[in-house]
Design brief:
Length: 348
């Protein structure tokens, strides 16, 4: 039985005081615009006028998919475990960006077709070696789906006890599952959800679309988000859903990465809509469906750098913007403190 999460809508009890604090910094009203909105949001999540970002952490979930036998990706399945070793060796893009911005990094084996040796940075949470091929079978059993969500929840709970209050999630997975989840949970046409993933050419993209269209036709598609997840999802996606839900319950600030990570959040939001209150959407991926997915959620990403790597890289490179928002709120002088005359009218 899936755990019931307690995710409450954010309180705006201090919103007047908070807005006054923002407006009375030594700047024209609204001059920092998006940073002001970010600062307001984070302060609401933490229910304080002086928010702090503590021990930022990105968790990467890796999982293999049975559907890859149908060539929906230009890379063979063994790339998943090879990239996990690359993460652990510090050689991937996310390692570079996380180190640059002093973000802790954890790698989770959610369901990789490989047995890894122990490593201090690797969290073993393997559900199975891969999901089933959803062209002909359910991707996972109900028990596996619930186990993956619970594993994600447990991982976040442990990290939160280590004094972390800001968290992001990346993946080493497959955009095919994400595209189908997006289509079935938004009713956006499948052709607008399917992208080139790890670099398919036009012929490969058409093959991917045809396979996914056939998979949807072959399955008795439910409208229940968890049943859709069980039918077409990946272990890494299911585990991310559990991490999102638990992080929101613990009132952590959630930094949302690209297409697959946002699709996992879409599923979580269908279960608990208030979860979106705790999220900052860090970037708009170049993956085809991501912009439409953000529009569907009625949210706006901080940056559009035309990235589509995954791994949590969008979250890592935009983290300094989020830091800047908190720093100006906490450290910038007010008109009163600085002895500067205040014109409360908007200035250009």
């Amino acid at each position: 039985m899936l755990k019931q999460f307690n995710i409450q809508a954010l309180s705006k009890a201090k919103s007047h005081e908070l807005q006054h604090k923002i407006d009375n910094k030594t700047k024209p009203l609204g001059a920092l615009w998006q940073l002001e909105h970010i600062a307001f949001h984070i302060a609401c999540v933490q229910n304080t006028l002086s928010p702090r970002l503590k021990k930022p952490t990105i968790i990467i979930f890796a999982g293999d998919h049975g559907i890859t036998v149908k060539n929906v990706s230009p890379y063979p399945q063994e790339v998943t475990y090879q990239m996990v070793f690359n993460f652990l060796a510090g050689g991937a893009a996310i390692n570079i960006f996380a180190k640059q911005h002093q973000i802790a990094l954890k790698i989770v084996d959610a369901g990789v077709n490989y047995h890894f040796p122990e490593h201090p940075q690797l969290l073993e949470a393997k559900i199975d070696l891969e999901t089933q091929n959803f062209l002909t079978k359910l991707a996972m059993t109900q028990e596996q789906c619930q186990q993956a969500i619970q594993q994600g929840s447990n991982i976040v709970s442990k990290i939160q006890t280590e004094d972390c209050n800001v968290i992001g999630f990346g993946e080493m997975g497959n955009t095919s599952s994400a595209a189908i989840l997006m289509q079935l949970l938004t009713d956006i046409p499948l052709i607008e959800c399917v992208g080139k993933g790890t670099g398919l050419d036009d012929q490969g993209l058409q093959n991917k679309y045809n396979i996914l269209k056939k998979a949807i036709a072959n399955q008795n598609c439910s409208t229940n988000p968890l049943k859709i997840l069980q039918t077409f999802g990946g272990f890494e996606i299911a585990m991310m859903i559990g991490t999102y839900l638990q992080a929101a319950e613990l009132k952590m600030l959630i930094l949302v990465d690209g297409f697959i990570a946002t699709t996992a959040l879409l599923v979580a939001s269908k279960l608990y809509p208030n979860i979106l209150d705790y999220c900052i959407f860090t970037h708009q991926s170049q993956e085809k469906g991501h912009k439409k997915l953000l529009n569907c959620l009625k949210v706006q990403a901080l940056c559009h750098l035309e990235m589509r790597l995954g791994e949590g890289t969008g979250t890592a490179v935009t983290y300094p913007i989020i830091q800047s928002a908190v720093n100006f709120l906490n450290d910038m002088a007010s008109f009163e403190n600085a002895g500067v005359s205040n014109n409360t009218a908007s200035m250009s």
